[in-house]
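Re: weekly structure request thread

Next one in the queue (224 aa):
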Amino acid sequence: MTSPVSDVLDPWPLLRKHEEVGCKRALRLIVHGRAGGYVPSCVRSFALQVAQLRGTPVLVEALTATDRHEQSADPIWLVPLLLLPGSHVREDVPLIRQRLQQQGVNTRLVPFLGAWPSWWRLLQEWVQHHDCRDGSLVLVHHPLRQGVAHRYLSLLQQRLALPMLSWDDWHADVASAKEASTPLFLALAPIQITQTLRDCGVMTSLLEIELFRLGLIDLLAALP
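Done, posted below.
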């Protein structure tokens, strides 16, 4: 598979209109993280690849961290690498932006990852690459309350034409299913709830899939 990002001349045309030509901002990537602010190694290596390709600093901030990294005065893009418009996107990310601006950091906020049209194209390409006619592919997501995030998932399900289950429902479904299903976990990095599956060789995060990892690296490298 090849990333569709390469077929798009500029995935950020609206953002580029407001930036100086040839002057790239540093990146501050917001991820969920694990307890104590732990960032999985696949995310750290991913950020390093983005930094090398962009030629700019790339810092990762975990929402679960209690200690915050000091930020230089360089202009930055604040990039929420979050897949669903839950409370982290609607409440925590704006607070992070406010904190940085109060520190005097020239900060511009990018929409959360799950809202990027280019990201949706990556999802569609992955689905199209797999033969889904037998109905074995299912999207597995974090349990959500009714509201904005739930409506977003409904729209995504319609766009991809695939069944969708929460972690809890998927585990119950697998236990009772007569035929094996192939899960696509809507998680950027492996999380504890799927660790046992990962130990069994099941890909439980999108960064473990080459199409998504390389496609996202290209998108972030293309930010002005």
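The chain has a mean pLDDT of 81. Residues 4-114+212-221 form a domain with the Rossmann fold fold (CATH 3.40.50.1400).
Next request, please.
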